[in-house]
Automatic annotation (TrEMBL):
Compositional bias ranges of the Basic and acidic residues kind: 43-55
Gene3D superfamilies found in the cross-reference section: 3.40.50.2300, paz domain, Ribonuclease H-like superfamily/Ribonuclease H
InterPro entries xref list: ArgoL1, Argonaute_N, PAZ_dom, PAZ_dom_sf, Piwi, Piwi_ago-like, RNaseH-like_sf, RNaseH_sf
Protein name per its UniProtKB record: Protein argonaute 2
Family: Belongs to the argonaute family. Ago subfamily.
SUPFAM superfamilies: PAZ domain (SSF101690), Ribonuclease H-like (SSF53098)
Protein's organism: Xanthoceras sorbifolium
Pfam families xref list: ArgoL1, ArgoN, PAZ, Piwi
Keywords, sorted A to Z: Repressor, Ribonucleoprotein, RNA-mediated gene silencing
Renumbered residue ranges of the record's region Disordered: 32-55
Highest taxon above the source species: Eukaryota
Length: 906
């Protein structure tokens, strides 16, 4: 016992006391794979995020004074927040014997009723509730079982047993120790408790939707039409920073269905609804399925979920009524008669269906006229009509001055996180003035392109926007394209967007020539119909026939197939899955309208994507990447996981890993994609996927990379431990099994945060009011002692720029702040698809594209497509054969061997 404690203390001392000492020297560390994960001796192997190597960077061509939406939080370190666990159960068990699920709205009502009945023992203003299992209190609460009775109509009551159990005392002094560096493990329980406290006031007075809070009543000017409204809300959270604890709050906009009568909603939302001959009940059913409503014919606040429409009209509906005392036999009652007898209400609209609001298989028919939509129900923005979508987008992309004003108003509002005195009751006080910081503007790199004669030329990017143009310039390395074909799905289009190949093809070839890409005439032009995108069997046969025929005509493998469509189509995902996993041909899709316009910029963008897909190099840095100017190969890795939608409870998550395969240019990538368990953030096959990428690097360069820099996307601070200990350590073990010991740096890139920068004056910002590209902040608002910084690498032309938050978890290359910040900023200029720096370091950007492509593969597989044999041209993609195929079958996602080492995904 004493021996183990001694080892842990010693390890703790060495790991955190000396920046140059790393206890976990992996190149010499041999990890026994037979040792169980729970073995005490393995505790010394646990990794923690590294400390900042210096006091921040110093490189800058100039500085900028900024305001940041971080609001300093003061708290009394002697305070204690008491944490209680609650359990709520109905007094009477359900008839079917299964525990009844109590909705969050009902839980809130039950909690409020208990506290209102006995405010002396349960002071509402001194407590905060997370809506489910946890209550945090500034004072001691009684524990045990308490009866709560909620009154309903007809003098009925629902009775519950409310159990309170003391869990923990959160001493805020522990948080102070962490903020000043005396404690090196984040007290997450304290931060979570304080976060619930800061959310209590908006929870009580606003609509809570996910992590954001929205006003109960929308502004009239935000009406989107069709029964919808835009809602201006906010998200906020607490962050541990160098200046202490801070509240970070940002403005957000969502589209909601209005709180209104259900019939009024349908009149606004569905065309021709209410007319005498209206019969499109399928559209009505789709529009209402799953929505929540309250009823007006009863005095109840209960919310019901719409299960669908009845097949019969209201006047045709009847149901069996049983006497609870069994004194009279059951009788069949018409719904219209029941409402008259029970409520003295005459149903007006008898010739339309009712709603089914039943649960657990029980029917509950309610006429639509007695239902109202519940507030705060999100309407998907991708389903908005174009005018409404543009209005919502305009509100979301608020310019910096407008966003800053709205944020300040929300922080200071009575229904915001600082209002009503709730936070103050816990000894928490928020300064409602934004934090001021000084940002540094990094110098932009010089780039390499080619001149008209093909020789390399040096270019300097635009001073304000950091963009460059391709007029009179060529790509660094243009691919010769001699074997390509056009598959024109717009050929039979009935609208005006039918492709004019005699106009598009010569213009495209000429533009490619100007960019240094030799492109011959296509070997095949194949007319097709958009309807062929709907049938996967037919589409597979079409693609196989076209690629085979084209290859025979050019006596070689087809390099690329350009697919022209007259509009965006769901069959896009079928086309990509078939071509990239089954046939093995690179495709480039384009819209006929854009192709016909043949604008110079559009054709250039098309050419850049095709050149990158075929292994060309569009732009490179003149100088080598900072820090890695010496000998030895370096590989940059990007990793991301794409999760299914919120309502999808079964689909797998998709893991994607990409890596560079050329050095020192480091602008060509290869990718691997794998399905894994539903909503699993940990990349389960990270080691194997990285080994495949290292092998690809080795085959192309005849040498393995000596240094690897990994950028991990999509993880929160609470998942850093998982990334370090469940992804990095298994990766190193996989490398060790190959007797391969590269040095590794691991960095998390976060875009899902609320931090925003606002220039104090025109001199500090650009023409749009945003910070300039290359703005970096690594003081005041960053972590108290870990290695992180914010970098805004792109030019913000619309809305308010959001910086990327980079957090270094592990570093065997011993980067300084200046070296790593300059490295990442320079890399942002090497993205293949555009002529400007991007907002996210390219390995992460590409990994996100690949993960999304994997999501398209999954959708194709699950919609009824079984994978044919790659070698068999007669294989059929029948819908029935997929039903027996598991969605986690990696064969359905594995790239064709001809595409494994190219950038098919750009």
């Amino acid at each position: 016992m004493l021996f183990n404690i001694g080892i842990n203390v010693l390890t703790f001392f060495f790991f955190f006391s000396f920046n140059d000492v790393i206890v976990l020297d992996f190149p010499s560390l041999k990890i026994s794979e037979r040792e169980p994960p729970s073995s005490p001796s393995r505790n010394v192997e646990k990794l923690h995020p590294i400390e900042r190597p210096d006091k921040g960077g110093t490189l800058a061509i100039r500085t900028a004074r900024l305001r940041v939406n971080h609001f300093p939080v003061k708290f009394n370190p002697d305070s204690i927040i008491r944490h209680y666990d609650i359990d709520v159960k109905p007094m009477v068990a359900s008839k079917h014997g299964r525990p009844s699920r109590i909705s969050k709205s009902d839980l809130a009502m039950i909690r409020n009723k208990l506290f209102e009945d006995d405010p002396a023992q349960f002071p509402l203003s001194m407590t905060a509730y997370d809506g489910e299992k946890n209550i945090f209190s500034a004072v001691e609460l009684p524990t045990g079982n308490f009866n709560v009775n909620l009154e309903e109509e007809d003098m009925k009551t629902r009775s519950y047993i409310f159990t309170i159990k003391h869990v923990n005392e959160l001493k805020l002094g522990k948080l102070k120790d962490y903020l000043i560096g005396n404690l090196l493990t984040v007290p997450r329980d304290i931060l979570q408790g304080m976060d619930v406290v800061m959310k209590e006031n908006p929870t009580r007075h606003r609509i809570s939707v996910g992590r954001s809070f929205h006003p109960v009543e929308p502004y009239p000017e935000d009406d989107l039409g069709y029964g919808l409204t835009a809602s201006r809300g906010f998200q906020h959270g607490l962050k541990a920073t160098s200046q202490g604890l801070a509240l970070c709050l940002d403005y957000s906009v969502l589209a909601f269905r209005k709180r209104m009568s259900l019939l009024d909603f349908l009149h606004e939302h569905i065309r021709y609804f209410g007319r005498p001959n209206f019969r499109d009940w399928v559209t009505v059913d789709r529009a209402l399925m799953g929505l929540k409503v309250t009823v007006t014919h009863r005095k109840t606040k209960q919310k019901f979920t719409i299960g669908g429409l009845t097949r019969q009209s209201t006047q045709q509906l009847s149901f069996l009524v049983e006497d609870l005392e069994k004194k009279v036999p059951p009788r069949q009652v018409r719904l219209v008669d029941y409402f008259w007898e029970k409520y003295q209400i005459d149903i007006k609209f008898k010739d339309i269906p009712c709603l089914d609001l039943g649960r657990n298989g029980r029917k509950n028919y309610v006429p639509m006229e007695f239902c109202e939509l519940v507030e705060g129900q999100i309407y998907p923005k991708d389903k908005l009509l174009k005018p409404a979508g543009l209005l919502l987008k305009g509100m979301s992309l608020a310019p910096p001055q407008d966003r800053e004003t709205m944020i300040s108003q929300m922080v200071q509002s009575g229904d915001g996180p600082c209002g009503r005195g709730i936070a103050q009751n816990f000894g928490i006080d928020v300064n409602t003035n934004m934090t001021r910081v000084v940002g540094r503007i990094l110098g932009r790199p010089e780039l390499k392109l080619a001149g008209p004669d093909g020789k390399a030329i040096k270019i300097t990017v635009d001073a304000e926007k950091c963009q460059w143009n391709l007029v009179g310039k060529a790509v660094v390395e243009g691919r010769r394209i001699e074997r390509w074909a056009v598959l024109d799905f717009s050929y039979y289009s009935e609208n005006y967007d039918r492709l004019n190949p005699n106009h598009f093809i010569p213009k495209f070839i000429a533009r490619c020539k100007n960019l240094g890409m030799h492109v011959s005439n296509p070997v095949l032009y194949e007319p097709a119909s958009m309807k062929q995108l709907e049938n996967v069997d037919g589409l597979y046969q079409l693609l196989e026939r076209v690629t085979t025929r084209a290859s025979q005509m050019c006596r070689g493998q087809l390099q690329i197939l350009v697919c022209v469509m007259d509009t965006r189509h769901s069959g896009y995902k079928y086309l990509k899955w078939i071509s990239e996993t089954r046939i093995g041909v690179v495709t480039q899709c384009c819209l006929s309208g854009h192709a016909n316009s043949a604008k110079d910029q559009y054709l250039a963008n098309l050419a850049l994507k095709i050149n990158a897909k075929l292994g060309g190099s569009n732009v490179e840095l003149i100088d080598r990447l900072p820090y890695f100017e010496g000998e030895g190969h370096v590989m940059f890795v990007g990793a991301d996981v794409n999760h299914p939608g919120s309502r999808d409870t079964t689909s797998p998550s998709i893991a994607a890993v990409v890596a560079t395969v050329n050095w020192p240019a480091a602008n060509r990538y290869v990718a691997r994609v794998r399905p894994q368990g539903h909503r699993t953030e940990k990349i389960l096959n990270f080691g194997d996927m990285c080994l495949e990428l290292v092998d690809s690097y080795d085959r192309l360069n005849k040498v393995k990379p000596e240094k690897i820099v990994i950028f991990r996307d999509g993880v929160s601070e609470g998942q850093f431990d998982m990334v370090l200990n469940e992804e990095l350590i298994p990766l190193k073990r996989a490398f060790q099994r190959r007797d391969y010991y590269p040095t590794i740096t691991l960095i998390v890139a976060q875009k899902r945060h609320q931090t925003r920068f606002f220039p104090e004056s025109r001199r500090d910002g650009g023409s749009t009011g945003n910070v300039p590209p290359g703005t970096v902040v690594d003081t005041t608002i960053v972590h108290p002692f870990e290695f992180d910084f914010y970098l805004c690498s792109h030019y913000g032309s619309l809305g308010t720029s959001k910086p990327t938050h980079y957090h270094v978890l592990w570093d065997e290359h011993r980067f300084t702040s200046d070296q790593l910040q300059k490295l990442i900023y320079n890399m942002c200029f090497t993205f293949a698809r555009c002529t400007k720096p991007v907002s996210l370091v390219p390995p992460v950007y590409y990994a996100d594209l690949v993960a999304y492509r994997g999501r398209l593969y999954h959708e194709t597989v699950m919609e009824g497509q079984s994978p044919p044999s790659v070698s068999s041209s007669s294989s059929s993609l029948t819908s029935s054969s997929l039903s027996s195929m598991a969605s986690l079958d990696e064969k359905s996602y594995r790239l064709h061997t001809d595409l494994e080492n190219i950038m098919f995904f750009v």
